[in-house]
């Protein structure tokens, strides 16, 4: 097989019904900005400025609008208020506009005579290529080739090029390059003012002021290989240059568009306009080739640290690379004011908000490929601690309570109260992640400098949130665990264990600071106004918090009241397994039934593997898997890992397929509304924790592997950052090897 | 005390902050239409056409808009769709407009020099009177006297009169009479088209077409005692006549406005316009005096059947008359396409929808004062059975499920799913009410003709809704009982008992029809497609449905899981008892705490008194009352009844005061958003079931009393319709008397 095929996401032949899926899948980005894989010329019958009121709804079941195409341009941190849905990331003006016209025929993938259509997203460098043959009504045969990328090195820049080669015929061709603000976010217009302008030297600009007061400046320079005589053609919501030229057989017209994007939220000094001008001028000085080389070098370094190589399973190879590509792209390096939103900045769904996905699903990838990025993701939580304090206060509690759906300031944005009020484990998940980071990196200073504030403030919240029963046990009542199909359970095993861990670590952290770093302790005590007896309260609550399971029962109950829920006859209810279970049952019935949305007890066992016996793991998997609907994209990877640990290769392989399909399956239009970025992290975990059997850094000082490769996998290799060093891991069906990079072999063992 | 004071609701002196309360309290109506007690001239700084998007929210806690004044004109059945709140009764154009102006000074209660302001709502005939002295800037002293009523005999007519007497000074006075469509319902404009017109003979009309296609025609005839030279002064949303005249000291100007209102939903034939013209012409022929006499006669007959007389407690006397007034007014006689909405058509709150209030809180009053009205209320449920079928289907169940908040077609309108999905007892409450009606009236034919359809269809729903536990018991999981502060309980005692009753009666009804009325049975079986074995399924479910209590426990648990909820330290949470408890606790905490919104177990005991021992009643009252917040207006009356049954006179008296305050307390602005019509029915029940100790017709063939009059009550008397006869009940502190009307004494006993 051609090596390229292991790096290319491909679309061969255009199908309108799949277009929105590819728009999501082909999302390009560089951390600073992201743009969906839409066509430069847009799409017929798919207006982007339709205004409507979107209502809070069940995301699994909601039928999204815009069936054919939704463009998307996102800059993390640029958000606005929706009257019903609360804070949402703003879909910014569309910067990619490049339209062609032959006579009265506008180039359009649906309406023109197009053949040989093909698109490739090259995962190595994030460039998107399109090519096709256009036979115009006027009789020209035009070979059209597009490419574009957002520079990973110069993150304010978008570089586009189109080449039209006349294979036969001749005629005039019109070109229009545009920056368009006729864009709505979930049906809302968030633009308070739009100013399109012509700029010197075949340039156009579009300055946009959002309702929230953010300023976005887009500046495009146009170049053409033929004289096209650019003329401004603005509208109130669009900056545009139009031009035309005459082409004969054999001619080639190349149009380049170089766009600089700046906002008032950038960390650089200066006006948005000045900075965009400077970016553009610098880029032009560098020239196309150098610009590309800088960009490609960045991607190369990222792939060196992050690539996973699989021999013997090309589908898995390509799929894991697609996941890693989106993980790398979604992460804003060195900006700790944002994290990675649930759809990986590849769609309007989930409104650009931050969930527990970051800590539990994404963090391990970054911990072991790019620890600095992991640190920044956690600093986002530190930076939004005040928002978490306001959340706690709003509910009448002391301390800090992280939002189920976090705004960029940390405040709760979830419009459905059953999640916002009851899915409280997020607050403990963040503490788990802080420890995971510290243990995987050895960055102990992070604990005393940042984490301790989160620990103490969240411990205060938990102490207020706990109720006490007659036996003197602390309880967490009315809780939604990871399984979102049971919103009001009593003592959810996952949640209570995570909270207990969180409180235990708070006490341990304060104990150890007081013992070993008295200055640090004194500073924290003063900063956080730690009162006498508070630590004892944390300790008591940690000790007495009830766990609804013990070593005597093999099946760990999901919650104290789990047994009281109704059994579901899946065969009679879920009559079409190709669609989510949620489509076949009312929420009312769902909420009282033993039908899980996703892994809950198994998620717990994955995070605390050392606390459960193999019998418990096996019995719980056997019990829960058949009653789990996997309606959440977070479920399959966890199940795959557990199946792999249990040596159930067939099941693990089936879950691997499921994980791969979540975004990649065109038939299921998996990526239409954005990338399931948590599942991307899940695939990485399935391979590293599941198949390579890496023992989590939470529970192991050194790299320990217990590999179980899927059938057919001849070799699996990847690099791993671990406590300040990098290692090369190579797993063969019968042996494995851990090699320190820039050093010799450390460990070599045999697969189990 | 002047006898009038026992019939007049009074407002002495105008206070802007109380105005909205009096608007609600002084609502006038005749079943066909209702109008809030707003001023003819409107109110400064209180625009009625403000547009905004009202969101679904917690009604107890929501801060209503329009702090100063909200006019309201409602015709039951004229509804429209709100994009977020679903179906709402439309606030129709304001027909009362009569404005006066002296020079550039518009008459306004806030801005003019007003003295001696007084309003009286005469409960005997529903007329509203206003009088005050207006000293104009130009130096006139005008004694102003207003009166108005909606005719109870000619229900399409509104009759208004204003008299201005010049006590001193002289000058010109301008009059404007208007029909205004600048009205919004909860911020929404539901009017698709408004056509204001001048009509022959000093008349104006306003035809309004709603979004839903309903047509409302208002036609007003103006008359003045002085020549005022009426001139049309329409705007696109207002029909108006303006005129002016010169007045000297001693002059009296009388302006009369007679308005006919028709809609396309009326049961009469003909266009709305023709019918309004006919109404008006007939009214003018009858003349003012005859019009009034016809109206007053109607009210007189209603009071003869419904009045309760209390000697020794004038406050209670006036209060119960206010309640009865609103009950009579709210009821649309002989129109079984509507029922009585939760705010008694006296405000926009609750959107004009129908709740369980109708069956449980209002029905007893109508059963025993106006049985035909009770029958019509139940026929509304029969007529909306198809809506209930659609509700069941929507959830995936067979049969019929009544809506928690019913539209006029029976479909669920509640925008908050925790109520809509989980407060299922309404479906059984309706069956309880059907039986209550049949037992109180002896109208057995109603059962086989109408009720059987509801019985069978709701039984089918219950059989699908029940889950089965390992012990073979039927369970109702995830249920909100009457106590709306616990939405997800297991086997709520009230709900399960009501459902068991409902299923038992379904089986009994089918058994008895098959035994005694084979034709009726065959017709029902065919109509309802009753399958073999279905009745056995009903019987089995009725038998096996679990009740979470038995005779061994004195405290009846509210639900199987009630004990697992958290205790609340009320003293530390509820720091200001003058405001609802709900203001002091988050919904999240509330939903897991033992803090009841309202009577739940006690409601059960009130409806099934014969099934509980006195020890259970006493212990349950002692346990639940202290943890009940009474945040619902349905709670106090039930508690008062139980306290009275237990001989706890002081507590019963305190609940009586609470019940009275709910609408009447100006300080609490009780009636601002409308009348708590269920509490009006509750007051009637507190007096009849509580103080007179009437044994419910559900459980007694004949009238049985066990009176316990409150301290100070010297005499209580009322009439009672009972199984086709009417009785006069007289209760003295030590004796009581039951006298058949148009007949001799039947029973005379001694109070216990």
From TrEMBL, chains A, B:
Glycosyltransferase listed as a keyword: yes
All residue ranges annotated as the Glycoside hydrolase family 65 central catalytic domain in the record: 322-685
Record's keyword annotation contains Transferase: yes
Glycoside hydrolase family 65 N-terminal domain mapped to chain residues: 11-265
EC number: 2.4.1.230
Listed GO MF terms: kojibiose phosphorylase activity
Annotated keywords: Glycosyltransferase, Transferase
Gene3D superfamilies recorded: 1.50.10.10, Glycoside hydrolase, family 65, N-terminal domain, Maltose phosphorylase, domain 3
InterPro entries, sorted: 6-hairpin_glycosidase_sf, 6hp_glycosidase-like_sf, Gal_mutarotase_sf_dom, GH65_N, Glyco_hydro_65_C, Glyco_hydro_65_M, Glyco_hydro_65_N, Malt_Pase/Glycosyl_Hdrlase
Glycoside hydrolase family 65 C-terminal domain span: 700-743
Pfam family, one: Glyco_hydro_65m
Family: Belongs to the glycosyl hydrolase 65 family.
Protein's recorded name: Kojibiose phosphorylase
Organism of origin: Paenibacillus silagei
Taxonomic lineage: Bacteria, Bacillati, Bacillota, Bacilli, Bacillales
């Amino acid at each position: 097989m051609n090596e390229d095929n292991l790096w290319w996401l491909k679309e061969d032949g255009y199908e309108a019904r799949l277009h929105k899926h590819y728009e999501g899948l082909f999302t390009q980005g560089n951390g600073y900005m992201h743009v969906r894989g839409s066509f430069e010329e847009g799409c017929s019958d798919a207006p982007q400025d339709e205004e409507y009121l979107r209502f809070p709804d069940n995301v699994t079941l909601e039928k999204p609008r815009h069936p054919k195409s939704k463009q998307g341009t996102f800059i993390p941190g640029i958000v606005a208020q929706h009257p019903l849905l609360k804070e949402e990331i703003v879909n910014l003006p569309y910067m990619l506009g490049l339209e062609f016209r032959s006579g009265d025929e506008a180039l359009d993938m649906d309406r023109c005579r197009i053949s040989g259509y093909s698109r490739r997203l090259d995962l190595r460098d994030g460039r998107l290529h399109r090519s096709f043959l256009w036979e115009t009504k006027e009789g020209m045969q035009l070979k059209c080739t597009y490419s574009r990328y957002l520079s990973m090195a110069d993150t304010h820049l978008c570089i586009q090029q189109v080449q039209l080669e006349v294979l036969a015929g001749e005629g005039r061709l019109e070109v229009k390059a545009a920056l368009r603000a006729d864009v709505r976010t979930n049906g809302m217009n968030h633009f308070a003012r739009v100013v399109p302008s012509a700029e010197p030297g075949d340039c156009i600009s579009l300055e946009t002021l959002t309702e929230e007061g953010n300023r976005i400046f887009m500046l495009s320079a146009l170049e053409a290989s033929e004289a096209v005589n650019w003329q401004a053609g603005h509208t109130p919501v669009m900056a545009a240059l139009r031009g035309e030229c005459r082409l004969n057989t054999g001619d080639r017209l190349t149009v380049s568009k170089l766009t600089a994007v700046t906002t008032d939220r950038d960390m650089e000094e200066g006006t948005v306009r000045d900075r965009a001008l400077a970016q553009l001028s610098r880029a032009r000085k560098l020239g196309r080739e150098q610009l590309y080389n800088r960009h490609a070098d960045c991607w190369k370094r990222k792939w060196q640290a992050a690539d996973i190589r699989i021999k013997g399973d090309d589908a898995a190879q390509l799929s894991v690379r697609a996941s890693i590509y989106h993980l790398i792209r979604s992460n804003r390096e060195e900006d700790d004011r944002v994290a990675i939103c649930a759809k990986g900045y590849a769609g309007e769904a989930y409104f650009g908000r931050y969930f527990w996905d970051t800590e539990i699903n994404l963090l391990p990838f970054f911990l072991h490929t790019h620890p600095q990025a992991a640190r920044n993701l956690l600093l986002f939580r530190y930076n939004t601690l005040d928002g978490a304090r306001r959340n706690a206060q709003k509910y009448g509690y002391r301390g800090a309570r992280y939002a189920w759906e976090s705004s960029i300031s940390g405040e709760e944005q979830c419009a459905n109260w059953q999640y916002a009020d009851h899915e409280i484990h997020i607050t403990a998940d963040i503490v788990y992640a802080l420890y995971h980071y510290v243990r995987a990196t050895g960055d102990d200073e992070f604990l005393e400098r940042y984490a301790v504030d989160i620990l103490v403030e969240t411990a205060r919240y938990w102490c207020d949130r706990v109720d006490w029963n007659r036996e003197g046990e602390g309880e967490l009542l009315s809780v939604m665990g990871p399984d979102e199909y049971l919103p009001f359970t009593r003592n959810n095993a996952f949640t209570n264990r995570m909270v207990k861990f969180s409180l235990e670590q708070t006490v341990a952290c304060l104990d150890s600071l007081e013992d070993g770093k008295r200055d640090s302790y004194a500073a924290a005590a003063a900063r956080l106004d730690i009162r006498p007896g508070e630590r004892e309260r944390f300790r008591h609550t940690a000790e007495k918090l009830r766990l609804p399971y013990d070593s005597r029962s093999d099946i760990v109950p999901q919650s104290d009241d789990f047994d009281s829920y109704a059994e579901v006859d899946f065969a009679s209810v879920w009559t079409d397994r190709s669609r989510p279970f949620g489509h076949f049952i009312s929420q009312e019935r769902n909420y009282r039934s033993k039908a899980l949305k996703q892994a809950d007890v198994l998620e717990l066992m994955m995070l605390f593997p050392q606390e459960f016996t193999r019998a418990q793991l096996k019995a719980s998997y056997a019990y829960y898997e058949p009653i789990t609907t996997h309606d959440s994209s977070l479920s399959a990877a966890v199940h795959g890992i557990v199946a792999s640990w249990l040596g159930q290769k067939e099941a693990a392989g089936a879950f691997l397929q499921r994980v791969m399909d979540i975004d990649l399956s065109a038939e299921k239009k998996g990526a239409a509304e954005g990338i399931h970025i948590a599942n991307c992290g899940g695939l990485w975990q399935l391979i590293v924790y599941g198949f390579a059997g890496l023992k989590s850094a939470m529970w192991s000082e050194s790299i320990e592997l217990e590999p179980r490769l899927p059938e057919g996998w001849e070799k699996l290799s990847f690099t791993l950052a671990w406590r300040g060093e990098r290692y090369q891991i190579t797993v063969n069906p019968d042996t494995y090897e851990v090699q320190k990079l820039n050093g010799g072999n450390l460990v070599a063992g045999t697969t189990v």
